[in-house]
Amino acid sequence: MLEALSRHIATEIKKADPDGPTSIEVMEYALGIRLTEFSTIFFVSLTGWLTGHFFGSLLALGSLMLIRKFSGGAHFSSLTFCLFFTTAVCVTIPFFSMGISTFLIISVCSLLVFFVYAPNHFIYIEKSANHKYFKIICISICMLNFFTQSTIICLSLAVQAFSIIPIWRGGERKWIRDWREL
Fold first, then answer.
1. Cα maximum dimension of the chain
2. Dihedral, CA atoms, 79, 14, 125, 167, nearest 10 degrees?
3. 45-76, pLDDT tens digit by residue?
4. Rounded Cα–Cα distance for residues 34 and 175 (Å)
5. Contact indicator for 70, 163 with CB cutoff of 8 Å
6. pLDDT in tens, 71-104
7. Where are the transmembrane segments (predicted)?
8. Across-strand partners of 72?
9. Helix, strand or coil, per DSSP, at residue 33
């Protein structure tokens, strides 16, 4: 769905400017990423509002997006599946409550995963000069939640920590390969 929409938009842009320097494939890739981001924010906001957990859902999404920026993680083979999975996770998280011992166990496990595996981008990216600080940023975000003791942030960090464990191989490469084959 999102892939088809981004391809349609990219094709229309190329028709309007056939001599433009950007190929349809590159535009489609960039548009797909942006459409996924905006659609996720929209659907999480809407579903969070409908379930009565608007701010909790946005907090889950915001913390997930923030930590994912620095920690990396596996990708789904479909942008549409990514949209629906992220929406489901972020809207479900505010419904959970936990005691302090459960909070501490999950937080410490997430912290250890980020300490060992972050950043784990699975695919080749051109590393910036600040890339070496990404692990420190991830650990700092986890440690900051020990002070705020937010169960929503704790569960968002746990979901993201699970996605950087290097057991997820294949889908992220297939997704990149699919974009290159267009």
1. 61
2. 20
3. 999 999 999 999 999 999 999 999 999 888 88
4. 16
5. no
6. 988 888 888 999 999 999 999 999 999 999 999 9
7. 41-67, 79-97, 103-124, 136-165
8. 120
9. helix
> How far is the C-alpha of 134 from the C-alpha of 140, rounded, in Å?
10
| Position 82, amino acid | C
105 neighbors 113 (Cβ within 8 angstroms): no
Residue 83 CA: distances (Å) to CA of 59, 62, 118, 138: 17, 14, 23, 23
Mapping DSSP to helix (H, G, I), strand (E, B) and coil, where does residue 73 land?
A: coil
Q: For residue 120, give the 3-state DSSP assignment.
A: strand
Tokens of 86: 């992220």
CA distances (Å), origin 169, targets 120, 126, 134, 138, 161: 12, 20, 22, 22, 15
| Mean pLDDT score across all residues of the chain | 87
> What's the pLDDT band for 174 if we cut at 50, 70, 90?
very low
Considering the entire predicted model, what is its pTM? 0.83
As a whole number, mean pLDDT of residues 110-139 equals: 82
Q: How many residues does the chain have?
A: 182
